[in-house]
Amino acid sequence: MALQSHGVKIPCQGFTARMAISSNQLSFSNSRWIEDCCRSWGRRRRAKAMKVAKKGGGGGGGGVEAVLKAEDEEELFSSNGNAENFTSIMKFGGSSVASAERMKEIASLVLSFPHERPVVVLSAMGKTTNKLLLAGEKAVSCGVSNVSQIEELSFVKDLHQRTIRELEVDPSVISAHLEELEQLLKGIAVMKELTPRTRDYLVSFGECMSTRIFAAYLNKIGAKARQYDAFDIGFITTDDFTNAEILEATYPAVAKRLHADWTNDPAIPIITGFLGKGWKSCAITTLGRGGSDLTATTIGKALGLQEIQVWKDVDGVLTCDPSIYQRAEPVPYLTFDEAAELAYFGAQVLHPQSMRPARESDIPVRVKNSYNPKAPGTLITKSRDMSKAVLTSIVLKRNVTMLDIVSTRMLGQFGFLAKVFSIFEDLGISVDVVATSEVSISLTLDPSKLWSRELIQQELDHVVEELEKIAVVNLLQHRSIISLIGNVQRSSLILEKAFRVLRTQGVNVQMISQGASKVNISLIVNDSEAEQCVKALHHSFFESGDLSELTVDGENREIGNGSAIKLNNV
Ligand SMILES: Nc1ncnc2c1ncn2[C@@H]1O[C@H](COP(=O)(O)OP(=O)(O)O)[C@@H](O)[C@H]1O
Ligand SMILES: N[C@@H](CC(=O)OP(=O)(O)O)C(=O)O
């Protein structure tokens, strides 16, 4: 089928598909969508013609090559210049694509907004990433002949094959991947080692398969979709396997590729979350656990979209982790700063770096529940009305290591802080919460740069050894950071209430830090007391109904920005 628009004949399989769905399965009008597409197609076609005339050719491609070309052609394919092709991004996490049933539901969701032209990002199905990691660890020691019997490999195979069967799509879309996955595990068994690079390659099978299955399903039901591996369309990262950072060149490269493909042949892009390509190694990298959120916001910025939606299994960002306290409630509005702080300090719901691209391009992020799409979710924007805000959310980060470092030099000596931090820099360890005086520092170490493990004892011993050259060091393990995310302009009120609660729980706070971010106050307590504290704090701030007490203006005195107090050594 073809449509006439602007005097040009447009090949429009994608449009046909939308109409087929409209009449058979979903009831919506798609005439405006078609009109928009035609208009957009006409513009893009002219732009493309200009490009061809000017350069004598074109072409897509991923990796560094694409970056160079994209930069070259920025004039024609600037990241925002083609925003009309797509309007929003919808990212679905593992829980949203955990089964054939779930995939059908999210297909309806994707297609239920006739005036949206979404880009879709998917994570691996359910717990696939964890299973692949476990399979990799088992392969190291199980022997080549036993690889086929690894329970987690069978689980991953069964899940994907069953999903294929239930969705009635062609098994060949993932059969090569399943074979290659088993070969890879055999390779790991032969080598008897699982390097970070191999680990990233191993987990990439999860996203590569979920997106292929979903795209095949959309095509089967008549909605034209195209699968993409992020590492093939310009997601360029550092070579920090298991925790790679996205490089700037990604934005023009991804925009160029997606717009060019849409121009040539419109189809809903279905893109792997979590994955990238190392700029030196050209090997597959991953963005850290939960990294698909970051993939989504990166694409949102690259395409200059109107909204970024991240679909989860909860009704938005909640007042605390629901696995700690079931009475957690959705938070309707957050700022990028609040969301970033919350994620950084351990709320699993968002990837720690994911707010950055959205904030840089000022694109609202909506956290929604794919199991309950009617729930309003959480809207994250640059600013919001803070006049009534006190506490927004409580976040717990467990199993944190704390260091008390007291200078052996005399008071008045300068350079102590610089020396301490240069040691951390040399050892590649980042620090979370800090409280300082002229001759002492208390701080917590950030284990998040290390994949799914805490700082190992050997590394800690090394840190202490280095620090002991200039200071007396006390290492305190099994601590928790409780972060109170909210309006730090009301810090005195928050602290007054928090300390009252903690005192009634008989808990001693060992360190407190109020960051310059204006949205976070962190308290350090023993691991063993942390959950009980979070529950009591939640009850007091969100359930006792006396929040008004906290907003009495006369009492609202602040602690200065960046202040930090070391309360006691335990
Ligand atoms: N403050 C919080 N608000 C919402 N969810 C939270 C919070 N803290 C932890 N979580 C956990 O995060 C999960 C959602 O994040 P995640 O598992 O990464 O979702 P997805 O895999 O769907 O992207 C929830 O199921 C919940 O258990
Ligand atoms: N599959 C990856 C990436 C991801 O973002 O997953 P999810 O969206 O399910 O948190 C992980 O488990 O880390």
UniProtKB/TrEMBL annotation:
Localization per Swiss-Prot or TrEMBL: Plastid, Chloroplast
Gene Ontology MF annotations: aspartate kinase activity; ATP binding
Pathway the protein contributes to: Amino-acid biosynthesis; L-lysine biosynthesis via DAP pathway; (S)-tetrahydrodipicolinate from L-aspartate: step 1/4; Amino-acid biosynthesis; L-methionine biosynthesis via de novo pathway; L-homoserine from L-aspartate: step 1/3; Amino-acid biosynthesis; L-threonine biosynthesis; L-threonine from L-aspartate: step 1/5
NCBIfam families, sorted: asp_kinases
CDD domains, per the entry: AAK_AK-LysC-like (cd04244), ACT_AK1-AT_1 (cd04933)
Catalyzed reaction equations: L-aspartate + ATP = 4-phospho-L-aspartate + ADP
Record protein name field: aspartate kinase
Family: Belongs to the aspartokinase family.
Enzyme class, spelled out: transferase
ACT domain location: 405-483
Entry superkingdom: Eukaryota
GO biological processes: homoserine biosynthetic process; lysine biosynthetic process via diaminopimelate; threonine biosynthetic process
GO cellular component: chloroplast stroma; cytosol
Lineage: Eukaryota, Viridiplantae, Streptophyta, Embryophyta, Tracheophyta
EC number in record: 2.7.2.4
Described purpose of this protein according to its UniProt entry: Involved in the first step of essential amino acids lysine, threonine, methionine and isoleucine synthesis via the aspartate-family pathway.
Keyword entries, A-Z: Amino-acid biosynthesis, ATP-binding, Chloroplast, Kinase, Nucleotide-binding, Plastid, Repeat, Threonine biosynthesis, Transferase, Transit peptide
